[in-house]
Amino acid sequence: MKKTLIAFLLTVSFFACNDKTEKGTFTVKGELKNTPDQDVYLEQIFFNAKDPEVLDTGKISAGKFTVSAKGIEEGLYRLRLQKQEMGYIFINDKPEIGFRADAKEISLQGPDFNTPANQSFKSFIVSVDERQKSLNKLSQEIDSLSKNKDNDSIIKSKIVELNDVAAGFKSFIVKSIDTIQYPVVAMFALGYTRGIDPQELKTIVPALAKRFPNHQGIAGIIAQYNEMIAKTTVPPSAPAAKAGMPGIGSMAPDITMTDTAGKPFSLSSMKGKYVLVDFWASWCAPCRGENPNVVANYNKYKNKNFTILGVSLDEDRAAWVKAIQKDKLSWKNVSDLKGWSNAAVSKYGFEGIPYNVLLDPQGKIIAMELRDADLGKKLAEVLK
């Protein structure tokens, strides 16, 4: 992720739609089964850090209720119950919106808002959920299989399957942003661009302005995106070392930083093994999206004279450690917690993350920028 795109990619799924005005009123008439009589709150959900705002309060009586609000354009709203920790998210695309659900039904298929934008929204969310479950299932299977050395061929096929599913997920998100008919659903889809190269968004994000010319929320996203992309230096099509910077065939500069236990650790201490030096950060969406692939390959090859050194460009120690634990990065991780002022940045000359270099047992760089299926292919080549 480029430095100047960090803010955009981290906040794009929560970029602000304008606050409500007196322009248009919408009413939700709901029927919610298996819930006691209680208050129900109609809230606007903002696409930024602002807390949800209660616009109306209704009473659920015998499972039925009515709430209303006013809004300038299509935005994201939520029905929240007083006595239960649950909410139902919807879009105000029609003056009258019917809602039916069963409080005991926890699947995404259950709740139903009977308008076109909400049907599109529901379809998108269900598809995302199914794809994420497939990725999680495959990652767990690979992790389990890696405990037995006799499973190498099965693990290899599972990694190929994982890469295919991940690539399909990314393609689905990009296509959804580019084709969805409803602006709020498109904005919501942008929140799933984790792991997608920002360059793939250079065409489809500005195109949203032509598809939704009168939507101020979309206009806000375009303005922020244009500001970020204008500051971005497009990386070269093929990795090449800058003058004086290490490239393939060069000896890797040593790195000495503090590990998660607070002790100094040096890359040079790993000589004798093939080492993937993986530059990443907890706030980097593409990095986090690539991590399942890195984990799967580590589990496959960790017993074949291969290891990983994770070098983080974090500044917040708690966020760094939490991301390591959540993504199951069980190899050695270090950081100087200086963000883009990390000492390794100037030594290795990279401008964006995720970024990695693969070293041979002597510490020589033999490959750079290995992502997705390319990582597994290179490791299979050298770790025979």
Strand order of the largest sheet: 10-9-13-12-11-14-15
Strand content: 15-25%
Rg, rounded, reads: 24 Å
The ordered string of helix (H) and strand (E) elements is HEEEEEEEEHHHHHEEEHEHEHEEH
Number of helices: 10
Ends apart, CA distance between termini: 32 Å
The gross shape turns out to be elongated
Instruction: Tell me the structural class.
Output: alpha+beta
Helical residues, percent? 25-40%
Average of per-residue pLDDT values: 83
Most strands sheet: 7 strands, mixed
List descriptors.
10 helices, alpha+beta, 37% helix, disordered N terminus, four-stranded mixed sheet, 15 strands, 23% strand, 384 residues, seven-stranded mixed sheet
Structure, explained:
- There is one protein chain.
- With 384 residues, the chain is α+β, with helices and mostly antiparallel strands.
- Helix content is 37%, strand content 23%.
- The protein has a 7-stranded mixed sheet with strand order 10-9-13-12-11-14-15, with helices on one face. The protein has a 4-stranded mixed sheet with strand order 4-1-7-8.
- It is elongated.
Topology overview:
Elements: H1 6-11, E1 24-33, E2 38-45, E3 53-60, E4 64-71, E5 76-81, E6 87-91, E7 96-102, E8 112-113, H2 116-145, H3 152-179, H4 183-190, H5 201-211, H6 216-230, E9 256-259, E10 264-266, E11 274-280, H7 285-301, E12 306-312, H8 317-327, E13 332-335, H9 343-348, E14 355-359, E15 365-368, H10 373-382
Parallel strand pairs: 1-7, 11-12, 12-13
Antiparallel strand pairs: 1-4, 2-3, 2-5, 5-6, 7-8, 9-10, 9-13, 11-14, 14-15
In short:
By secondary structure, the chain is an alpha+beta fold. It has 10 helices and 15 strands. The strands form 3 sheets. A 7-stranded mixed sheet has the order 10-9-13-12-11-14-15, covered by helices on one side. Strands 4-1-7-8 form a 4-stranded mixed sheet. A 4-stranded antiparallel sheet has the order 3-2-5-6.
